[in-house]
Amino acid sequence: MGCEMNEELYRRLAKHLDDLPGGFPETESGVEIRILRKLFTPEDAKMALALSIIEEEPRVIAWRMGISTADAEKRLDEMEKKGLIYGTRKEGQPPRYMASQFVVGIWEYQIGRLDLELIGYFEEYAPYLLDSRTWKKTPQLRTVPVGGSVGGDTEILSYEKAEELVRAQTKFTVTPCICRTEMEMMGEGCGKPKETCLSFGQGADFYQRIGRGRSITMEEALEVLKKADKAGLVLSPGNERDAVFICACCGCCCGVLKTLKKQPKPGRLVSSPFMAIVDKDPCIGCGICIRRCQMDAVTVTGKKAIIDEDRCIGCGLCVTTCPVRAIRLMRKTGGEQPYVPKTITQTFIRLGKDRGKLSNGKLVRMLLRSKADRFSAPK
What we know:
This protein is an alpha+beta fold. It contains 17 helices and eleven strands. The strands form four sheets. Strands 5-3-4-7-6 form a five-stranded antiparallel β-sheet. Strands 1-2 form a two-stranded antiparallel sheet. β1 (about 85-90) and β2 (about 95-100) form a beta hairpin. The mean pLDDT is about 95.
């Protein structure tokens, strides 16, 4: 009886996660339930079901669940440390907690809890997580070019520059890339640096609080970007102008790029305003750009490099190491310019609507329930 009840509990949790913007799709094999059993205790699952995408204090969540505030505070703190939910802190105020979507979210927070069984489950599940139709409308990540790769006569906006995204922040955390970490644990590592994922602001505080990252200075964060370029890693911030993180991805390990690489036209799916072009005259066909490209977008024919526009994601890695400066990034035509929401909240709302999981009415009902529970919960 207990097993059957727990099975139903985890299925409810799976649906709860699938109703979040990032999704958690059902599979025939049920691997998603195995992942949840591995990560969440039954008590964790019950608590997670009481959370939404609205930040709330422990007293409100406690009232909703019919438990004491002290009990809720303890359990929420434990779940935050496990990376199962997201929490924020403001000076002089109680902590607040909200549901975390699976990707980008819970999975990335598991960097300190990985084992081979969990990695195996995730590798089986990963192909189901990227819906190319939704991703094309509102991707969770976008691509920004590495420094110095955009042609001098091409206008580039501040939120299209990784360095400017960093300079706009005051708090910084660097964490190991979970993708390269898991592949290394499986004996399939690529040898590229792992400590390359940057988080800012409250996200930086969160990673430090749960023991997954270390605090660094702005100068150190800028050095991470340089290290990423040298290693041939694609800079992938969140798809918002006020970026809260920047990933540094490779096409051999990172789940999103690996999945995109299998698509016939990844350049049409990625949110990027730029594409690479080759000046045929100086090009010597050395092939360095082929080795640098993470999307197999470059070929050499007749000792001249050729860029496949359908595969180019505008990262600029081919530009910065061209010995004769024959490649540069240029802005795509107006109709191909991606829309970048201002904040991560706006991105999540758009994504939820695109997936048919969030409507204005549902959002209003969620806000009204939270307001009513805040009013009813004992102070």
